Amino acid sequence: MFEWQKLTDLSNRTVIVRMFNEMVMKEDIVTWLSKYCLVKGEPQKVLDDDGIWNCAWRVPISLHEDKNGYGGFKHIPSLIGLGENRGLVFYQGQPKLCRRCGELGHLVDAITKVVCGKCKEIGHAYTECTSMRKCNLCECEGHVFKDCPLSFANRTKLGTKIQKQFEEAF
């Protein structure tokens, strides 16, 4: 009936995800966030003073604990990429992490390591990479975001195909 919540639970946050394309589905944002934290509710559109949506979503989350992480938590990257769509992630207490390697202590302009843009491994460049491209939604090799079975569009298409097959069978 009631859910107890500690007032001092620092893992509970509200994340603002600002996408640069208004056509990105909120379900895909939730799937991406779920890789890094526990999504605790439905994303809500962020409106300006005139009631106009600015392509941002407000999402209640709970960060995963990580004893080696900043403040004892595993933090969410500040950049979101879903296929060709990019966005920014903001939340209270978010540490400044390097956008290229994800480590604390430096920003991308001061990085000294070589990080592959394809597989995100440290030690080789994109041109030297022998790995297959990874989906930036589910991080599996062998497909990209537009073909990902976890993307909302593909789940919807799959659902209608199954429904059509069901209707044809009966």
Automatic annotation (TrEMBL):
Q: Where is the signal peptide?
A: none
What Gene Ontology molecular-function terms does this entry list? double-stranded DNA binding; RNA binding; zinc ion binding
CCHC-type domain mapped to chain residues: 97-113, 115-131, 134-150
The record, for InterPro entries, names: RBD_ZCCHC3_2nd, ZCCHC3, Znf_CCHC, Znf_CCHC_sf
A Pfam family per the record: RBD_ZCCHC3_2nd
Please give the biological process terms from Gene Ontology that the record holds: activation of innate immune response
PANTHER family, alphabetically?
GAG-RELATED PROTEIN (PTHR22639), ZINC FINGER CCHC DOMAIN-CONTAINING PROTEIN 3 (PTHR22639:SF3)
Protein's name according to its UniProt entry: ZCHC3 protein
Gene of this entry: Zcchc3_43
